[in-house]
């Protein structure tokens, strides 16, 4: 049973969500300083990108573990439990450890709040991650950005490698509405003299990245595309691209820090990353795609693994997403839609609003459900395809697995 102290700690963190998203490094820098700058004791691989960064991080974490290296992995958002954000060798942080670290950081947060500079939820979890991985003396930390890069709280570190997986249109209110503007924000993770590894980027975005790398005198390394002899556990063509990028990073880091590359690549075959084209036990397909670029990849995967099949699409998304463009894509594979709300602090579109957006581009039948459970219980003639948001994916996984099963997946 979850202990009351742990629930109190979680409430302390969740209460910080009212401060929303603040891009900038001043507050997180102060909070790291107050906790002894644990990040200075760690080796980071810093990963940014509109899509694919989580998958690349999961592969890197699995491969570094396979090489016998104690590997921290900080990711966001979590699907079911906040403990998922802090992993060592794939294992989520224990409740008691997280509770203890929150108790350690709480006085600093309250002091900063009293002076009118309250850290955000993401800034606090980022510092907790640094504290945890430093205490546990990890060999490497795979460090995923939350949003953008330049002013993301994770950008307080100096990594041994920077990785940019791809550039697409998302989070436009914070990062800009063009690929060049978004690329500029992602390029902010490039540090002087530190190699940057780039996935497939468009010409205009690539120029922005190359300009920043040149200014920083940072070598740019592109994946070679050769996965001969490597077995992947994650499905889809895009995961092959992600694996090529992760492999390029591993080759460089193995050379620089003298570990066995052959051992490390075994980690590709047992990488686990839920809600990324995940086939659930009843045959339903769960995918956290939440922007047109990611949904295009999802459609490609469906055409590869389920050719000619149509689906009952359970869909929910946050209010800041380009739902109309997403519906244009999903219309190709949908037999019907079921719209659901998303629980949580971030504003989502209601089923009524989703229906209105969908009607502009699709003539498919649509139903509305008051919850994920209600949607899953509805009669349907086709296999479920559940997509639109990682937050929705987390609610779906909670219907299929216990919290402990998720954090230990």
Radius of gyration in whole Å, from Cα? 21 Å
Number of helices: 16
Strand content: 5-15%
Whole-number average pLDDT? Answer: 93
- Helix share bin: 40-55%
From the coordinates shown, what is the CATH architecture of the largest domain? 3-Layer(aba) Sandwich
Largest sheet: 8 strands, mixed
Strand line-up in the sheet with most strands? 4-3-2-5-1-6-7-8
The total count of strands amounts to: 14
Uncertain residue ranges: none
Number of domains: 2
**CATH topology (fold) name of the largest domain:** UDP-N-acetylmuramoyl-L-alanine:D-glutamate ligase
The computed structural class is alpha/beta
CATH level 1 class label of the largest domain: Alpha Beta
The helix/strand order is: HHEHEEEHHEEHHEHEHHEEHEHEHEHEHH
CATH superfamily label of the largest domain: Mur-like, catalytic domain
Alpha-carbon distance between the termini? 19 Å
| Shape, principal axes of CA atoms | globular
Fill in the keyword field for this structure.
409 residues; alpha/beta; UDP-N-acetylmuramoyl-L-alanine:D-glutamate ligase; Protein-Tyrosine Phosphatase, Chain A; 8-stranded mixed β-sheet; 14 strands; 13% strand
């Amino acid at each position: 049973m979850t202990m009351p102290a742990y629930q109190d700690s979680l409430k302390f963190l969740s209460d910080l969500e009212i401060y929303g998203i603040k891009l900038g490094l001043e507050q997180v820098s102060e909070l790291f300083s107050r906790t002894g700058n644990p990040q200075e004791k760690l080796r980071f691989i810093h990963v940014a990108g509109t899509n694919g960064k989580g998958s690349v991080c999961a592969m890197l974490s699995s491969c570094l573990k396979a090489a016998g290296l104690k590997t921290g992995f900080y990711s966001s958002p979590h699907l079911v439990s906040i403990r998922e954000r802090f992993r060592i060798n794939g294992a989520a942080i224990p409740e008691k450890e997280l509770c203890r670290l929150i108790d350690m950081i709480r006085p600093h947060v309250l002091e900063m709040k009293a002076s009118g500079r309250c850290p955000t939820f993401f800034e606090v979890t980022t510092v907790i991650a640094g504290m945890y991985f430093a205490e546990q003396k990890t060999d490497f930390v795979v460090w995923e950005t939350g949003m953008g890069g330049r002013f993301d709280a994770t950008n307080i570190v100096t990594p041994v490698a920077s990785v940019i997986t791809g550039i697409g249109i998302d989070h436009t209110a914070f990062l800009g509405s063009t690929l060049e503007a978004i690329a500029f924000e992602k390029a902010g993770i490039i540090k002087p003299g530190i190699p940057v590894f780039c996935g497939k980027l468009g010409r205009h975005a690539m120029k922005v990245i190359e300009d920043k790398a040149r200014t920083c005198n940072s070598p740019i390394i592109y994946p070679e595309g050769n996965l001969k002899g490597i077995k992947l556990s994650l499905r889809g063509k895009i995961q092959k691209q992600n694996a090529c990028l992760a492999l390029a990073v591993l080759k460089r880091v193995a050379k620089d820090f003298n570990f066995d590359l052959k051992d490390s690549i075994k980690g590709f075959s047992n990488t686990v990353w839920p809600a990324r084209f995940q086939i659930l036990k009843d045959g339903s397909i769960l995918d956290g795609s939440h922007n047109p670029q990611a949904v295009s990849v999802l459609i490609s995967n469906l055409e590869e693994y389920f050719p000619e099949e149509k689906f009952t699409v359970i869909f929910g998304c946050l209010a800041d997403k380009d739902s109309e463009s997403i519906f244009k894509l999903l219309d190709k594979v949908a037999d019907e839609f079921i719209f659901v709300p998303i629980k949580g602090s971030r504003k989502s579109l209601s089923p009524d609003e989703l229906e209105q957006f969908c009607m502009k581009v699709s003539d498919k039948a649509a139903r509305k459900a008051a919850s994920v459970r209600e949607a899953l219980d509805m009669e349907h003639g086709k296999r479920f395809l559940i997509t639109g948001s990682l937050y929705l994916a987390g609610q779906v996984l909670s219907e299929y697995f216990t919290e402990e099963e998720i954090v230990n997946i």
